[in-house]
Specification:
This protein is of the alpha/beta class. It has a single domain, classed as Transcription Regulator spoIIAA (2-Layer Sandwich). A five-stranded mixed sheet has the order 1-2-3-4-5. Helix 1 runs parallel beside helix 2.
Length: about 120
């Protein structure tokens, strides 16, 4: 996997955080920076697109928990899409999927928020 790259796409109903690469302890800085920026901007919904992620370290998962907590304080929410393989295993082992819902697509995550 390439070095971690994160892009943000602002949509009317959500901000999509697209992550490419392995989110491990050596590449945590960009994830931390973007998570802090999102928490400060308080979008209604953050969708983490992990389609191109090979691995999540426990530190990366901890960033998602912190982002979830910060957003929840302001009535916002977070969802994940495209999580598979070793990344999905890490999410399930950590039980992160019990607080952050996983959807098959960005569209499904946004639609669920509207309900």
């Amino acid at each position: 996997m390439p070095q971690l790259a994160i892009t943000l796409e602002v949509l009317p109903d959500a901000v999509i955080m697209r992550i490419v690469g392995d989110a491990d302890m050596h590449s945590l800085a960009p994830l931390e920076r973007e998570a802090n920026r999102l928490a400060a901007s308080r979008p209604k919904l953050v969708v983490i697109d992990a389609t191109e992620v090979g691995f999540f370290s426990s530190l990366a998962l901890s960033e998602f928990v912190s982002l979830h907590s910060a957003l929840k304080l302001h009535g916002s929410s977070i969802a994940m899409v495209g999580v598979r393989g070793a990344a999905l295993d890490a999410v399930r082992r950590s039980r992160l999927d019990s607080i952050i819902k996983i959807f098959p697509t960005v569209e499904a995550a946004i639609a669920a928020q509207r309900e």
